[in-house]
Design goal:
Blueprint (H helix, E strand, L loop, with lengths): L8 E2 L2 H4 L3 H22 L5 E12 L11 E15 L10 E5 L7 E3 L2 E4 L4 H5 L9 E4 L9 H16 L13 E7 L9 H16 L8 H13 L8 H8 L4 E6 L5 E6 L9 E7 L6 H4 L4 H18 L12 H9 L8 H15 L18 H8 L3 H9 L11 H27 L6 H22 L4 H12 L4 E5 L6 E7 L3 H11 L1 H4 L3 H7 E4 L6 E4 L1
Parallel strand pairs: 1-15, 4-8
Antiparallel strand pairs: 2-3, 2-15, 3-8, 4-5, 6-7, 9-10, 11-13, 11-14, 12-13
Helix pairs in contact: 4-5, 4-6, 5-6, 5-7, 6-7, 9-10, 9-14, 11-14, 14-15
Bound molecules: 2-acetamido-2-deoxy-1-O-phosphono-alpha-D-galactopyranose.
Amino acid sequence: MAAQLPIPVYTSLDQAMPDLQTAAVQAVRYNNLVEEFEKRFEHKPSYIARAPGRVNLIGEHIDYVLFGCFPAAIERDIIIACGPSTSAPAGSGGVQAANLDPKYKPQTFVPMLKTGGPTATEEADAANTVHAEASWELDIDTRELRWESYVKAGYYGVLNRFFSPASGSQEHPVPVDLLFTGSVPSGSGLSSSAAMGVASALAFLVLNDKLEGLSKGQLVEMAMQNEKHVGVNSGGLDQAASVICTPHSAIFVNFYPKLTAEPIPLPTPRTVPRAVFVCANSLVVSDKAVTAKFHYNLRVVETLVAARVLGRLLNLPLTATERPTLRVILSRWLGTPEADLEKEDVKSAIERFLPEIEKLRPSREGRAAGEEGVTMKEMIELSGLSEEQFNEVYLSWVEVEAEYFQLYKRTRHVFTEALRVLEFREVCVRAQATEGDLPEETLKQLGALLDASHESCSTLCESSCPEVDELTRLAKAAGAYGSRITGAGWGGCTVSLVAEDRVEEFIAKIKEGYAPYRELSEEKLHDAIFATKPSSGAFGVLC
Ligand code: NG1
């Protein structure tokens, strides 16, 4: 299983990148980073830690309800030259972090062991129930987005797992020097944050000699916990893609009953014409931290409450204190042990379950347009909990704001999107088993699923925005097989499936049609819209 494999550490770049041309281009970048490291820290680095961004091909806003998604790692990544510090006191675990991009100022910090109860971060983190007596504190300011917060977040998992006195460790972390450079555009839905967090965790692991015995799945779980320290209640999609992906494949990543990942080669290489994925940044930046209460975290709460309400309407067993997800509700409705279910069974179960969702459709009686959904009061009544219980289970750990909560629409999005992911996987698997050239029909099928996913994100999940909708329309008009929003949304990127021999023409048409691109320099345009191939997940390279 892909998630059980170790994280690779290579002795040379060409081992990591079998494609010679890519290896040659990257060698220049890696060598430059190593030289800069030596200039700044006056010693050689020992490793380069690398983690890629990702493009989610399909399966949006369903990871946190534990349905499977279909992401691929992209070639754009974060790389860190790193080595034990020669200037900081041994065993202090102090960090000197610098970035080749001058807009990110150098930072120095030392982890502190705090005794006597949980840290502020632990208190804020509802999912974290471990109240260690002595715990590590790195002082992340979650009100402000700072680049080193992701470095600190990456450090937390390593400190807590390997250097926690609460778990009996007597060891001290080594002080380290880190130099970063990155090519994943930030705030664009391509998950620069997961790449930063994963690459940082990897650097701390490798320098403290803790990588051996750690599986990719364990690093994903560590990176998911780490992100909570920066205040995001995310699912594991980004971290799984950044750690587990392999070149030429996307992964079907499943979160229930446990994290598993299956590399699925994309059917592009043997198709006529070949096709690639093109990412296009709308240049609308959605600040997740600021908008979480009426965007991302609201979706998390709406789907969680919907799961309880649906469970009650279907007379499924529910305790007052639990917070089951929609995936768990499906499982209870089926009554079949998960271990006995194949992907095909889940697909047919979703198909059979879809009519049940209609039970959530709110009555529109006496309501004006725009007033669909349920109020907070109605939602609490539907949950069958007292106001106090409801607040404790659904609101005490997160802040949300809405006049009407859209339980029906969000649930319909979740189940139809989960079904599209399984269909997308099936088309790819069938294509792999087909001998000879694939018919263009395969690409059309994948494209139709991408389009349907976008429609659902736009109208049911309501995670798109006018600029992103416009980009998908332009992409279709420019000949894409399919086009959709990727990532959390409310801005960010689209991903489109495009015939490889038409990419240049495609990009030129989008540039012409999308007003914010017209004034961009060639360099900025190349950053905003680019074709990408599935790349490998995180790895280390010995210097
Ligand atoms: P991005 O695009 O990285 O903000 C977010 C979540 C994912 C997933 C997608 C929506 C974080 C760090 N990541 O992705 O887990 O829920 O939205 O599919 O919050």
